[in-house]
């Protein structure tokens, strides 16, 4: 319902044409490949691939589409991941529709747009985790044991414990589950 309403609101703008809508990341990738839009408007959280995953994939394959993320997640880690994936804009859904449309136009014109409150948050809180620590914490978030993680990532169980211990220390977490939760809440996973 929200997707349809948003598409209709954008479609009312004289200079904006909505060429497709998608309910998950895989549909979004297919729609970009089929319709070749100038701008992809996406959310962070979607079924299957997230908006961040979609952005990373489009960046990896060199697709020229500009990406504007419109989300409820004011997490500095998400913003950093988005910018690392070549996203052109990151704004919050609770902004007035006029600001969202203006952000879309600016992204279309080649500018970068970041909600000011997100820019300040991203500046103040850097992700302390290494890529390996993030990978292990993602596994922890799925409920995997250290033995399972070691097998999946071809690591020794002691190595898994060491990485998770480092991550727990960096995040001031009492256990691995809390470390995974904190990292996810901050948008670092």
Give an overview of the whole structure.
The structure is a single chain. This protein has 189 residues and is α/β, with parallel strands linked by helices. The protein has ten helices and four strands; from the N terminus they run H-H-E-H-E-H-E-H-E-H-H-H-H-H. The protein folds into two domains: 2-124, 3-Layer(aba) Sandwich (Rossmann fold); 131-185, Winged helix-like DNA-binding domain superfamily/Winged helix DNA-binding domain (Arc Repressor Mutant, subunit A). Strands 1-2-3-4 form a four-stranded parallel beta sheet. Helix 2 (25-35) packs parallel to helix 3 (51-61) and helix 4 (76-84) packs across helix 6 (116-124). The radius of gyration is 18 Å and the shape is elongated. The model has no long low-confidence stretch (mean pLDDT 89).
- Approximate helicity band: 55-70%
Computed CA radius of gyration, to the nearest angstrom: 18 Å
**Strand count:** 4
Q: What is the mean pLDDT?
A: 89
Label the CATH architecture of the largest domain: 3-Layer(aba) Sandwich
Structural class: alpha/beta
How many discrete domains? 2
The CATH homologous superfamily of the largest domain is named Response regulator
Low-confidence stretches: none
Largest sheet: 4 strands, parallel
Number of helices: 10
Q: Which overall shape is indicated by the principal axes computed on the Cα atoms?
A: elongated
Question: What strand order characterises the main sheet?
Answer: 1-2-3-4
Name of the CATH first level of the largest domain: Alpha Beta
Order of helices and strands: HHEHEHEHEHHHHH
